[in-house]
Amino acid sequence: MHQPSASNFVRADDIRSRFSRAMSAMYRAEVPQYGTLVELVSDINAQTLGAQPALRAQMAQSGELERLDVERHGAIRVGTATELATLRRLFAVMGMEPVGYYDLSVAGVPVHSTAFRPVSDAALQANPFRVFTSLLRLELIADAALREKAAAILARRQIFTPRALELMAQCEADGGLNDADADAFVREALETFRWHSTATVDAETYRALQAAHRLVADVVCFRGPHINHLTPRTLDIDAAQAAMPTRGMDAKDVVEGPPRRDCPILLRQTSFKALQEAVRFTDDAGAHTARFGEIEQRGVALTRKGRALYDQLLAEVRDMGHAGSAAPDYEARLAQAFRAFPDAHDALRAQGLAFYRYTLTALGQAQADMATAADADTSLNALLAKGWVRADPITYEDFLPVSAAGIFQSNLGGEEQKQYQAHAAQNAFETALGARVHDEIALYEAAQQRSIDALHAVLHGTPAVDAA
Ligand code: OOG
Ligand code: NI
After folding, report:
1. Which residue range is the domain that position 459 belongs to?
2. Average pLDDT of 287-311?
3. What family is this (predicted)?
4. Pairing between strand 130-136 and 73-78?
């Protein structure tokens, strides 16, 4: 009988780091073009850091420099509630919790999604790796016979190895995994995300499901939810986008998300289009298109007010001429519309559009040490004005539904335009998941508030609550 002992447990953050490293190595071996993308990003990051010594110094100081080359996210799609709920348990072993609900049906993609990610400041700092996880909405397949067939095919598969299931249960029972078990867990978990070049269905079934939607075929016809992309962080996404073709990559047409700005907000993403790969159906040879490579650049997290402004401006641009992001002047229109979004941190903060982490400066610490602070005006604005406190942008750790739909398109050859009469079904998603998802904006709000409470605890010995 094994003797669990908390002191021997590997930290969940470390298991997540081991897992993301193993995924990266596997995906580079499986999709060589992804390795080319990683090299490109690393070259562009080196150039950017070379040209901006201040950025390099700041990143070195915060510890970000050493983590620059670790992957930031990946994505998978599953077919059943049991698969989703078991993934929740698998990711929990690595300290990843479901955050956010994304309804992609509005964009013509028959899935809804969450992101499994670390939640605490310390865990995000240790390794922010996340997995965007989509659940197929079989009810959106119009043909009842095909829908039932898809459900029956999915019901027959087991996407987790027996040992992975055992280790999840062991971790839940004991509260952790020791070093050898953690390594075994990573090895076994990896099997779920591996590519299978043999489909579980015949060519005709594949074609019928593909006609319902290409993503339906992708989810239903294989033994597991192959990882469909990984995403490193770039320091200059426009330069990387421009350079992709010079290294033989077929880049998607536009960078998703906000335009290039002085103060980056939310998330910008682009990818090379999914590759056509040879597969074997049970009766014939064929091809399948699912796997690609993506890059991301993150900015400050927005408040509900900031997010509403973002959504409104983006909708204005996309509604013009109903061309979405396909129109040739998209970038110019995007930049034009976003002039209405303040582009200085002072303004973003003062107008309550973005979240910041407040810390005491050396000057503020000196005042606290001399106990002169207790009598002073300690509203945040006063503290910032006096230079006792600094405000650092809180990074956006989540995804954007319109952008995600644009990234999904890289799988769909661009011509797939389905319309679904569906609406968001967060309750159904959470029932399948077996848990509620975190409200992402509440998490940023709480992170900002923790930083404010910590300040006031130092300045007064008691936490205060004023956030403005
Ligand atoms: C997920 C697409 C969404 C992102 O970065 O927005 C995504 C998928 O293609 O399965 O990964
Ligand atoms: Ni992605």
Report:
1. 356-393+439-468
2. 96
3. Belongs to the 2-oxoadipate dioxygenase/decarboxylase family.
4. parallel
Show which of 321, 336, 351 is a domain's final residue: 351
Q: Are residues 317 and 279 in the same domain?
A: no
Atom 7, ligand 1: residue with shortest CA distance: 404
CA 351 to centroid of ligand 1, rounded, Å: 31
CB distance 420 to ligand 1 below 6 Å = no
Give residue-wise pLDDT tens across range 340-384: 999 999 999 999 999 999 999 999 888 888 776 666 777 899 999
| Entry pTM | 0.94
Atom of ligand 1 nearest to the CA of 404: 6
- Residues 242, 314 within the same domain: no
Structural domain contains residue 1: no
Same domain membership, residue 195 and residue 136: yes
* CA 408 – ligand 1 centroid, Å: 6
34: Cβ contacts below 8 Å, ≥ 6 apart: 27, 28, 229, 230, 293
Structural contact between residues 94 and 193, judged by C-beta atoms closer than 8 angstroms: no
Angle between helices 53-62 and 32-51 (to 10 degrees): 110
